[in-house]
Amino acid sequence: MSNHVKYRIGKSTGFQALTIVLATSCVIPLVAILMYIIKAGITKINWNFLTNVEKPVGEIGGGIAHALMGSILVIFFASLIAIPIGILCGIFLSENKKSRLAYWSRLSVDILQGVPSIVIGIVAYIWLVKPFGYSAWSGSIALSIMMLPIIIRSTEETLKMLPDTLREAAFALGMPFHRVILKVIVPCGISGILSGVMLSVARIAGETAPLLFTAFGYQFFSTNMNKPMETLPHLIFKYAITPYKDWQDLAWGASCILLIWVLLLNILTKLITRRWKVQL
Amino acid sequence: METSVENELITRNDISLRVITSEKIRDIVKGIKRVKRSHRQIRAENVFRRTLVIIGLAMVVLVVGIMLTLIVQSIPSLKALGIGYLWGQTWDPVRDVYGALPFLAGTLLTSFLALALSIPFSFAVAIFLGEYYPKGWLANLLKNTVELIAAVPSVIYGFWGLAVLVPIVRSMEASIGIPSIGYGIFTSSLILAVMVIPYAASLGRSMIQMVPSNLKEAAYSLGATRWEVIRSVILPYTRSGLFAGVLLSLGRALGETMAVTMVIGNTPLMPKNIFSTGNTMASVIANELGEADKMVYNSALIELGLVLFLVTVVINMIGKKVISRFTNE
Predict the structure, then answer these.
(1) A193–chain B nearest CA distance, Å
(2) Which chain B residues are closer than 8 Å to A37 by Cβ?
(3) Cβ contact, residue pair A89, B309, below 8 Å
């Protein structure tokens, strides 16, 4: 083998090694973050932590119950708004592939997907907080706007993949349009739609920026959607930037819970999509 | 002939006349009911179709509404400060002096530095998963892990950066003999670099997998090594796709708020170098919008949001265009 060929092969192997090293090192930060958060957070979680609300600095026994409840409520109402609208819009886009309105609608969804979360927060602030004051509703609506593009995209992509024969068979039986969609097409693509919904919930569960000046934060337990409300990510932000050790410990515990929650949702979504692909 | 046909008709009529009984009448009534029901179904169908159209339209209205709201709310600041606002160097709400250049500089510095740091890694992941190991458990593991990087909430990245990265950067700064703060542009870029890896990586991977195998095989049959195939077939073929992935990453980095806010130091001054503290557009909005009570102050912050919105929209649109052109080819 001539030296030149040896050099070329060596270069190729070297590049392959470099690629492998660089690619696998991407895992390091994620593993480091996971390990650190879980190590720092898991010891802070106990019964008081889960059931108590904020206590002044120095007083022991503070908890995050108000933020847990707030997060669940805000996310629940955001989903309640976004899921029906998102699925219907996804159906519209998959049923009208060529129409002019569908083109503009699709473009809007694309734009919405790229809009930074802080901008959504500003808009919710202008629309809802300036006239009505801080409220959990404004936070829910901001988050629902962020959920929409994910749900719409996944619904559209799923329904597009269904064979046309399915739809034609249903029409041939004389079913009206809405029954074809709701009783045949949507049930067939339900796992794809569901995974989109879960992905969107996972994405907004950790969003802080749109909540900074909408749901705002509150130090007491509250279920009133018309009043400000504490949420888990906002609580982490608030406590993390304080110099008090007690509050930072609470933030570690809250981070641990939030991280586990979000990762579980993501992994669950992965499993659903995998199972669905096998079925196809 | 004619008469026989007539006769036949008559006899048919006779028969039909003869069979009109109560059963037949019931059938006719049923038929009318069916017509009524199908009217109702048609109406339901129309309502459903109309709902779909309205919701499709609502998306357009929502996005146009967001843009108009931002523009209208920026008018007070546009009137009071003019276009010079964007390159004014001082930001002092107490004295009513507003200049956005420190934030523009901070955003651009952090984003491009993060991009430069993340590109080697995200392209390595794309080549690794697209070309070297497209299948197998190792590839699956890496793919899912890299996707999980995008799933971690940004406030958690920020908190981790605050607790782990800031002290590391501080000691590093001390060892090379510059003011050791720990917070600043460099720390933010490190966090951002980790956060944007998945976007360029996953797009790049799918683009690399779309390279036709006959192109690669032709190169191999000419005696090319793996690296030569990657460099002279795969990379040129997927150039535009990789570029689009980088654009999507850039869009993410520009708009990222929480993680940056927590580690950048939040000083409204022009950054002197990459280790100094600064502020980005997104983080100044996050810090100050809630307490901006003065009309112009509030509006100036919203104008920053408008700039952010327009920039990310343009970047994402170019990215999407590039992707769709690539996939259509």
Answers:
(1) 17
(2) 156, 159-160
(3) no
Complex ipTM, two decimals? 0.91
**CA A25/CA B135 separation, integer angstroms:** 19
Please give the CATH architecture assigned to the domain spanning A47-279: Orthogonal Bundle (1.10)
User: Helix, strand, or coil here: A43?
Assistant: coil
Domain range holding B67?
A: 2-71
Domain range list for chain A? 3-42, 47-279
- What's the mean per-residue pLDDT of chain B? 87
One domain, residues B46 and B90: no
Measure CA A57 to chain center: 32
Residue B260 at interface with chain A, using a CB cutoff of 8 Å: no
Question: Last residue of some domain: B71, B102, B123?
Answer: B71
Does residue B76 lie within any of the structural domains? Answer: no
Please indicate whether, in this complex, the C-beta atoms of B69 and A126 are within 8 angstroms of each other: yes
In chain A, % of residues over pLDDT 90: 53
In a domain, B77, yes or no: no
Nearest to B312 among A85, A109, A114 (CB): A114
Could you tell me if B64 and B93 lie in one domain? no
Residues B45 and B96 in one domain: no
- Interface subset of B 40-99, CB within 8 angstroms of A: 41-42, 44-45, 47-49, 51-53, 55-60, 62-64, 66, 69-70, 73
The pLDDT assigned to A279 comes to: 39
A168 lies within 8 A of chain B by CB: no
Work out the average pLDDT over B87-116. Answer: 90
Asked if residue B93 and residue B28 are part of one domain, the reply reads no
Picking from A66-80, B90-104, B156-170, which range would have the lowest pLDDT averaged per residue?
B90-104
pLDDT in tens, B177-202: 888 888 889 999 999 999 999 999 99
Q: Is A115 on the interface with B (CB under 8 A)?
A: yes
Domain of B106: which CATH number? 1.10.3720.10
Q: How far apart are CA B18 and CA A169, in angstroms?
A: 40
| Of B240, B234, B249, B235, the residue nearest B324 (C-alpha) | B240
By CA distance, what is B127's nearest residue in A? Answer: A19
CB B125 within 8 A of CB B146: yes
**A117, B273, B295 from B130: Cα distances, Å:** 31, 37, 52
Report how far residue A273's alpha carbon sits from residue A94's, in angstroms, rounded to the nearest whole number.
Answer: 19
Domain-embedded: residue B29: yes
Q: Which of B287, B310, B304 is nearest to B102 (CA)?
A: B304
Q: Rounded mean pLDDT of chain A?
A: 89
Is the pLDDT at B206 greater than 80, yes or no? Answer: yes
Residues of chain A in contact with residue B125, where contact means CB-CB under 8 angstroms, are 22-23, 26
Q: What is the pLDDT of residues A44-78, one digit of tens each?
A: 888 888 888 888 777 777 888 899 999 999 999 99
Assess if residue B209 is contained within a domain.
Answer: yes
Whether residue B211 sits in one domain with residue B275: yes
- The per-residue pLDDT for B173 is 87
Domain boundary among B71, B92, B126: B71
- Looking only at Cα atoms, what is the longest distance across chain A? 80
pLDDT at B144 over 80: yes
- Domain count along chain B: 2
Residue with tokens 């794309």: B126
CB within 8 Å: A110 and B317: yes
Structure tokens, A71: 């997060």
